[in-house]
């Protein structure tokens, strides 16, 4: 009980420091994380190491992707490619159905793309629609982000569900098939239906992604705009499919592993965009690099906030909070699928990382799976759904959404946190329904 109280006090303090005392979010995270770590029993001599590891592990996997993605997004906006894409989408689907078009795009993009890559890649597209057609940013953008979130938590080849499949001895193909069946209703409810209640939320997205109005005769072609903006998706999809259609070994295997890395994909995409949307449209290399420089300035604070969330996550991990909480509810007499969802959900709320929550829950459920009469594919999905529950201030995704959309913490909770929770609950409901028939 003491551990729960410490975590609750930690979360409340962070919220109050940022929203009431107007602290810089990074400073709030750093100060509260140090105090919380000490209260949770981490020796003072090791707290600094937790801070460094938290920043390193979080930014190590994000800083290149976020940085290159911001540069690509800025160029897509400045070149008029976003304007061209928006016009094509609006003409094809119409303004009434634009939400559904963006949601479908997010789902397709989210299957091969890691969440953070997909988020950074697709947010400029959302903003271009917002600025050009004066539509509410949260209302328009949330369905696409719901789709990205579902693919991240439910579907292989994303890291967490893929690892869960291996740990719980499930079948990758069946898990993907069941996951797709669960994903569609979850996305619809958490996306277009829920976002109808959010039209009143005022949001002024980052000016970095506000596209300048480019004369029609200077716009890049539709093919150039779509192919360049979606090139990371195309490259990652191709590199994901290759191992299934041919056998790789030796140099070809090493080359494939190198090129398929998300950081390398983003770098290749940006280099190509430098020519297709930069040099070939009449801009000098210096002008393109100036655009990239401005993009980095715009996301510097976001990187610090994400780093702060990483510090808090690492403090919880190093203090053994996840294991303590999981063990305390392990003996609950409830349906195995609900138990897996609850364990993952509680860890998610306390630790912040969906991946950590999923893998920790699997480590607890895995050893007792043989004693449970439950389909392992459904257990993977149940744990995956639980790992998305109630995203809040200790989740880097919460802060990326808040800062990109320039929202208050209150409005972030009302939109992002509730959306993630709807996805999680819909996933559990779907799993329990499927369990009746499978």
Automatic annotation (TrEMBL):
InterPro entries linked = Glcn_transporter (IPR003474)
UniProtKB keywords: Cell membrane, Membrane, Transmembrane, Transmembrane helix, Transport
Cellular component annotations (GO), alphabetically ordered: plasma membrane
Looking at the record's lineage, which domain of life comes first? Bacteria
Q: Please give the Gene Ontology molecular function terms for this protein.
A: gluconate transmembrane transporter activity
Transmembrane segments annotated in the record for this chain = 5-21, 27-47, 59-77, 97-130, 137-155, 175-194, 226-246, 258-279, 299-317, 337-362, 374-393, 413-437
Membrane topology listed for this record: Multi-pass membrane protein
| UniProt subcellular location | Cell membrane
Q: Which PANTHER family match?
A: GNT FAMILY GLUCONATE TRANSPORTER, HIGH-AFFINITY GLUCONATE TRANSPORTER
Q: Which family does it belong to?
A: Belongs to the GntP permease family.
Give the protein's recorded name: Gluconate transporter
Supply the source organism's classification: Bacteria, Pseudomonadati, Bacteroidota, Chitinophagia, Chitinophagales
């Amino acid at each position: 009980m003491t551990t729960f109280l410490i975590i609750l006090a930690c979360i409340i303090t962070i919220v109050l420091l940022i929203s009431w005392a107007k602290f810089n979010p990074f400073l709030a995270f750093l100060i509260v994380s140090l105090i919380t770590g000490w209260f949770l029993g981490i020796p003072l001599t090791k707290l600094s190491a937790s801070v460094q590891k938290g920043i390193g592990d979080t930014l190590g996997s994000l800083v290149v992707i976020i940085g290159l993605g911001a540069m690509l997004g800025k160029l897509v906006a400045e070149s008029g490619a976003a304007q061209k894409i928006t016009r094509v989408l609006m003409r094809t689907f119409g303004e009434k159905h634009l939400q559904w078009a963006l949601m479908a795009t997010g789902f397709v993009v989210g299957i091969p793309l890691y969440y953070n890559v997909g988020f950074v890649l697709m947010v400029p597209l959302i903003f271009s629609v917002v600025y050009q057609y004066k539509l509410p940013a949260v209302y328009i953008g949330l369905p696409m982000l719901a789709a990205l979130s579902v693919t991240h938590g439910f579907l292989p080849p994303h890291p967490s569900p893929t690892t869960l499949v291996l740990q719980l001895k499930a079948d990758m193909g069946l898990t993907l098939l069941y996951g797709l069946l669960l994903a569609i209703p979850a996305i619809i409810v958490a996306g277009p239906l829920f976002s109808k209640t959010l039209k009143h939320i005022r949001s002024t997205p980052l000016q970095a992604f506000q596209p300048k109005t480019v004369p029609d005769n200077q716009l890049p072609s539709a093919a150039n705009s779509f192919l360049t903006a979606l090139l990371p998706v195309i490259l990652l999809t191709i590199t994901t499919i290759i191992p299934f259609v041919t056998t790789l070994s030796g140099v070809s295997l090493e080359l494939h592993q190198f090129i398929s890395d998300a950081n390398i994909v983003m770098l290749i995409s940006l280099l190509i965009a430098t020519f297709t949307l930069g040099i070939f449209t009449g801009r000098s290399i210096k002008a393109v690099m100036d655009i990239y420089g401005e993009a980095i300035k715009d996301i510097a604070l976001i990187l610090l906030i994400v780093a702060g969330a990483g510090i808090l996550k690492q403090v919880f991990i190093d203090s053994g909070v996840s294991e303590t909480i999981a063990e305390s509810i392990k003996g609950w007499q409830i349906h195995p699928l609900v138990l897996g969802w609850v364990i993952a959900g509680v860890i998610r709320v306390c630790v912040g990382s969906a991946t950590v929550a999923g893998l920790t829950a699997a480590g607890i459920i895995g050893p007792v799976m043989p004693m449970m009469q439950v389909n392992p594919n459904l257990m993977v999905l149940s744990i995956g759904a639980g790992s998305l529950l109630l995203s809040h201030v200790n989740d880097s995704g919460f802060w990326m959404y808040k800062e990109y959309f320039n929202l208050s913490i209150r409005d972030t909770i009302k939109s992002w946190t509730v959306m993630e929770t709807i996805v999680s609950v819909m996933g559990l409901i779907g799993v329990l329904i499927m369990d009746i028939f499978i």
